[in-house]
């Protein structure tokens, strides 16, 4: 993650085992969601860079991830399916 004003590197999010295809901020700016070709979606803390949750259950590669407007759900379209996840429980 980079500072838009200065260009300074703020955080490096590491933990996927394949290419990251998509990133999205939560509406409140406290989380980043990443979708990867490793068939996982990860939820990160924007202040610490800590991985808060790994969402697993897709059988294909992820191309995007989106947060609901209220920040309570994460939607991950993969191939011909989409899953809706609860942000708090990861279910």
What does this structure look like?
- With 91 residues, the chain is an all-beta fold.
- It contains no helices and 7 strands.
- The chain has a 4-stranded antiparallel β-sheet with strand order 1-2-3-4, with no helix packed on it. Strands 5-6-7 form a 3-stranded antiparallel β-sheet, with no helix packed on it.
- It is globular and about 40 Å long.
- The protein is 0% helix and 42% strand.
- The model has no long low-confidence stretch (mean pLDDT 83).
Shape: globular
* Structural classification: mainly beta
Cα-atom radius of gyration: 13 Å
The low-confidence parts are none
- Indicate the percent of residues in helices: under 10%
- Alpha plus pi helix count: 0
Count of DSSP E strands?
A: 7
Identify the strand order in the major beta sheet. 1-2-3-4
**Proportion of strand residues:** 35-45%
Biggest sheet statistics: 4 strands, antiparallel
Order of helices and strands: EEEEEEE
Q: State mean pLDDT (0 to 100 scale).
A: 83
Q: Could you give the distance between the termini?
A: 27 Å
Supply the key terms.
7 strands, 42% strand, 4-stranded antiparallel sheet, 3-stranded antiparallel sheet, mainly beta, 91 residues
Could you provide a short overview of the structure?
This protein has no helices and 7 strands. It has 91 residues and is an all-beta fold.
Question: Topology, please?
Answer:
Layout: E1 20-25, E2 31-36, E3 40-45, E4 51-56, E5 66-67, E6 73-78, E7 81-86
Antiparallel strand pairs: 1-2, 2-3, 3-4, 5-6, 6-7
């Amino acid at each position: 993650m980079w500072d838009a004003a200065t260009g300074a590197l703020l955080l490096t999010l590491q933990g996927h085992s394949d290419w990251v295809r998509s990133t999205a901020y939560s509406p409140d700016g406290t989380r980043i969601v990443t979708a990867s070709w490793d068939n996982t979606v990860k939820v990160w803390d924007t202040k610490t860079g800590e991985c808060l949750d790994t969402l697993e259950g897709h059988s294909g590669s992820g191309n995007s991830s989106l947060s609901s407007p209220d920040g309570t759900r994460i939607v991950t379209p993969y191939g011909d399916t989409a899953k809706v996840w609860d942000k708090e429980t990861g279910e």
